[in-house]
Write a structure and sequence with these properties.
With 389 residues, this protein is α/β, with parallel strands linked by helices. The protein has helices at 9-19, 44-60, 94-99, 118-127, 189-193, 234-240, 266-275, 351-359; strands spanning 26-29, 33-36, 84-88, 107-111, 133-135, 144-146, 161-163, 177-179, 201-203, 224-226, 248-250, 281-283, 324-328, 342-346. It is globular and about 80 Å long.
Length: 389
């Protein structure tokens, strides 16, 4: 549905400048390279908007052409300031991050930037003193580097990509939010994360880990944990139950994937409810539910639907002190029960549940779809709608 509200002056000006860089903010140096006019200073509010809207135009408008010099416009922090930017898809390359390495970034969200390599890991180190939020979701090549840069002269032994295993987040002392979704297989996650003493939100979606006990090092700080599409086991749940400060937990999964063996039982849900007493948001979408989670017809309260935990049709949730703010039950049998103790529920029982599934946030865009993981605004400090990239 089209909005009746007119576009803001900021939106109109940004769009015009991006379509007419040479005639507004920039000039051509040597008739080929864009440069900012020397008398221009752009604060972070404007620079962030220019970069983020530029990325949106590239992904939404096939007629909008990418300028290879665009990111060099923000290379000098004396004339431009960047703080919070979101870069996505294959247009972003190592040299683009290198161009802005002198900026004091607070938030850097990289989504499906498959052209980024280990060269960008070195660039990330430049942002470590100021970076609070970082997403590397879907950046599948960022832990690879060329074994023999430049290749060989005889072309019989061309350069090949090898996995970088020594990188850690040492020095990222301010980092609170980290999204490593779909990270390259073979990277030692525990060693990679060990230096992050103050982590509050972590997304490890699509990563298969045998042991989650290392997460307990953040049992006093972690408030949001997303493990979408992780093949869980009892040991995983035992480790998660020790994270007693958690307010948002996402262990949902794609129901179409057939390799999952783990099933949710009354015992597992009881463990979550009894130990994670601060939990306000829980997503268990896509899980196979055993019948012992639901109350029998004789045991269920009759009458108008209720969100009161004491009347819950999901038996383990009767021990909740208060209803959930959000409960993800999409593609589970539990969404069809009568009394669900949550203000917002995703599922396929009725229109409200389906709309909630569409409106809830997703990892990569800040909006949720039934096919992706959920997250609350807890996930990204400084952001009104966090990723569930």
């Amino acid at each position: 549905m089209a909005s009746d509200s007119p576009e803001s002056l900021m939106t109109l000006c940004t769009d015009y400048c991006l379509h007419n860089l040479e005639g507004t903010l920039c000039y051509l140096l040597d008739n080929e390279t864009l440069r900012l006019h020397p008398d221009i200073f752009l604060p972070s509010e404007i620079c962030d908007r220019l970069v983020n809207d530029y990325m949106e135009l590239l992904n939404a408008n096939s007629l909008f052409e990418h300028n290879e010099n665009f990111f060099t416009l923000f290379s000098d922090p004396r004339s431009t300031r960047l703080a919070r930017i979101r870069l996505r898809e294959g247009i972003v390359q190592d040299q683009d991050l290198e161009a802005i390495r002198k900026q004091d970034l607070v938030e850097l969200f990289l989504t499906n930037c498959r052209k980024l390599t280990a060269k960008s890991l070195q660039t990330l180190g430049s942002f470590s003193p100021t970076l609070v939020s970082l997403s590397l979701f879907g950046c599948s090549n960022i832990f690879y580097e060329e074994e023999n840069p430049g290749g060989c002269e005889d072309n019989f032994n061309p350069s090949r990509q090898v996995l970088v295993k020594g990188f850690t987040f040492e020095g990222f002392r301010r980092l609170r939010f980290l999204n490593l979704g779909r990270m390259t297989e073979g990277v030692n996650v525990e060693n990679l994360l060990r230096p992050l003493a103050s982590l509050t939100a972590l997304d490890l979606s699509g990563i298969q880990l045998n042991n989650l006990l290392f997460l307990t090092q953040w049992k006093d700080t972690l408030v949001s944990l997303v493990l979408y599409n992780m093949d869980l086991c009892e040991e995983h749940i035992q480790a998660i139950a020790q994270l007693r400060k958690l307010r948002h937990l996402d262990i949902s999964r794609d129901r179409l994937s057939s390799y999952y063996k783990f099933k949710l039982t009354r015992r597992v849900l009881n463990l979550i409810v009894e130990n994670l007493v601060h939990l306000t948001s829980l997503d268990i979408s896509g899980h196979t539910m055993l019948e012992n989670c639901a109350a029998s017809c004789l045991d269920e309260k009759v009458g108008q639907t209720s969100i009161n935990p004491e009347e819950s049709s999901i038996t383990p949730f009767r021990n909740l002190k208060r209803p959930f703010q959000f409960l993800g039950l999409f593609e589970t049998s539990l969404c069809r029960l009568s009394h669900i103790p949550a203000y917002k529920v995703t599922g396929d029982k009725n229109e409200d549940q389906v709309l909630n599934a569409i409106e809830a946030p997703t990892r990569s865009t800040g909006k949720k779809s039934p096919l992706g993981p959920s997250t609350s605004s807890l996930t990204s400090p400084g952001s009104s709608a966090a990723t569930r990239p």
